[in-house]
Amino acid sequence: AQGNVIGAIIAIIFGLYIGNDFILIGVASIICVALLMQFRLENTIGLAVVTLIIVMDSPGNDFLEIALIRFGTIMLGLLAAFIVNLFFLPPKYEVSLFQLIYNTNSEIVRWIKLNLRHAADFPLLKKDMEWMQKQLNQTRNLYGLYREERTFLKKNAISKGRKIAVYRQMLLCSQKGFELLKIQHRYENDYLQLPPDKQELIRQHIDYLTDKHEQLLLTYIDKVSIDLEYVESHLAQDPQDLMQLFLREMRETEKDEYEDMMDKYHLMRIIASVFAYQETIDYLEKLIHSFKLRHTKENQIDINVNEE
């Protein structure tokens, strides 16, 4: 609504004092876009420009009256859409957001595991990585819509605040997983040159993290029960082993030749991306366990996922 008001005001000022031919409509549109970006209302640019064009396209005679009627009609339509979304057909951003996060993450995890086992088709992976990036961008946009969605009951607002924190971390975990996949893909030759025991150490640790990530998403929607002893399960992998490998490679790098030093630098990039992924996963686990174990009555989740 703010964008529509700004667009209508600019259109009326131009129509009354400057003119409303097609060149001036273009100039007014540029000014409108600049103002909206200044006020950080980028999401409303499309509707605001449409409002501006409709209002400025009013006939010369009785311009103000016709412009106000058109603007009022637009605002009435927005009000009707708001009422429908609020009471009859709510948009359900939360369901769409989790579904998008789940499907995108499943694809990222699938490719990470294929890469670890040297079974990835590189042309297909490159194409799929472009799709993943678009999905992550779409997820951020949907997260913004969910965050801005209004709640009128204080009880629901508190619960939604907790959910926003969880979804923000889910999005960050998917982003770190995608970054790990890109590092894997870029430095795969360096990974293959490692001794088998080092490859196995890295593979086991990444497998543990990806399995844990998938389990946490299913735990959030009550498809998997909360496992307070998860660290003791058969999937557990001690991160200290990977840290020792990382520190050992750093020490050896100081006395290596340049080519060997670059290979070890690439290995350290891989290990660093694994640690970054682990850090986000660990924090997501804390958030979800806290969300599920406290305030259980308020934190109700009713989401079903469909794999694409």
TrEMBL record:
Topology class, membrane: Multi-pass membrane protein
Q: Provide the protein's localization.
A: Cell membrane
Q: Name one Pfam family in it.
A: ArAE_1
Q: Which keywords annotate this record?
A: Cell membrane, Membrane, Transmembrane, Transmembrane helix
**What domain of life?**
Bacteria
Predominant subcellular localization, coarse grouping = membrane
This protein's GO cellular component annotations are: plasma membrane
Any transmembrane segments, and where?
A: 6-36, 43-60, 66-89
- Give the protein's recorded name: Aromatic acid exporter family protein
Organism the protein comes from: Listeria monocytogenes
